[in-house]
Amino acid sequence: MSATVTPLKFSPPEVPEDQARAGYYALLARLFYAGPDAGLLAAIANADEIVSGGEQSALAGAWKALASAAGAADAEAARLEYDELFIGTGKAAVTPYASFYRAGTGREKILVRLRDELASLGLKREGRALEPEDHVAGLFDTMRYLISMGSGDAALQQQQGFFDRYIAGSYRGFCGAVSASEKSNFYKHVAHFADTFLVVESEALKVF
């Protein structure tokens, strides 16, 4: 992707709501792009808690568990865990490509449509990047980018469309695979937070 996609830094989520949403997507993009370093783990561990209540209660609990896991994690061990989960030797334990979790639709068709859509947004894969465009990190960071474009009706409809086309049908399978892997320790908490956040996103975006 271009330099606007897959940021390598994370700042704890802030209010208002769109900044928080963008922050969560940025964090998930970063964590699924590469294993965390010590600074990122500290940022997560020391971030403010999510205010609990209503539909936010599950999200608050998942965030608290992730923050606790980040505080206890060793950066080198977490990076090694990432490599074992998503890169592996020969074959990764968990594939990070969203279309893998979509039943009944050819992956190449999804990739062609996704490339065209990213191009229409002025986004493209960096020359040195080898990952197909449906890598979950790229999809999450594209959502961050779309949120940064504004919160009017047209912008929200664009966010909903992208989410529905490329994330909605795959995130449960992906997060479930991460959580179920015997190689997953820190990343099972990342997956639980991702799944919980994306459930909230899915419900919120349905109104547009």
Total strand segments: 0
Which word captures the global form?
A: globular
The H/E string reads HHHHHHHHH
Specify the number of helices. 9
- Helix and strand content put the structural class at mainly alpha
**Rg calculated over all Cα atoms:** 16 Å
Cα separation of the termini: 28 Å
- Flag low-confidence runs: 1-15
In percent terms, what proportion of residues is strand? under 5%
Instruction: Calculate the mean pLDDT score and round it.
Output: 87
Q: Report the biggest beta sheet as strand number plus sense, adding barrel if it closes.
A: none
Helix content: 55-70%
Comma- or semicolon-separated keywords:
208 residues, disordered N terminus, mainly alpha, 0% strand, 60% helix
